[in-house]
Design a protein that fits this description.
- This protein is of the alpha+beta class and about 240 residues long.
- Helix content is about 40%, strand content about 20%.
- The chain has 8 helices and 8 strands; from the N terminus they run H-H-H-E-E-H-H-H-E-E-H-E-E-E-H-E.
Length: about 240
Amino acid sequence: MVEDANKRLSAAQEDYIRSISKLAEAGGTITISALAGKMKVRSPSVSVMVQRLEKEGLVFHPSRSELRLTSRGQEIALNIHRRHRLIETFLVNVLGFDWSEVHEDAEILEHHLSDRLVRAIDRYLGHPQVDPHGHPIPSPEGKVITRNLVPLESLVVGGRATIREVSSDDPERIRRWKELGLVPGAEVRVVERQPLDGTWLLDVAGTPVMTGHQGVTGLFVERNEPARKSEDTSGPDDDV
């Protein structure tokens, strides 16, 4: 069971586990330097914490330079994600916070709420499956909905999709996406791409939006397949 998985861990340990999990989601090799960049701390400090997590059986090294979470570490990461995303949903849906500004508040609160309170929040919200940013919320048992999402930047000209997830911890960036209508649930179509200039012209729910490459990086979409024309099953006119 995911709940109660991270008892006796410090807030710092939880932050490291969450960061390792996020790096794993992004793909690629997780190294000390990559984790230091994610945590915005010096590599020696990361090495010390990683050694502590390794002793706790939460992290292991499949190779000398690579880090991974153990199954126990993954269980704890799911619990942290569940808490964080439920808190964000509560802050937005119940308290009326702007969804572009709730990440830091949720990061503070996630370390202090009891599992009992988290379960109560989940019930009150009606057991939501995604948070305001479109991230899936793990169930108490650690199950997560699976979706076939791709980066918006992978779409070709003419490609249509629905934004399902915005991935950034930067409030300014999220606020800009909100201003442009690039939010979960929005229908988008790629009108034009200029690779040399790094610019994109999108149709967002009927509104033209021009943005740079950084403006689409971090947006994950579900492709919309073009509607197939119904097959004409009638043959040549029959003689009467």
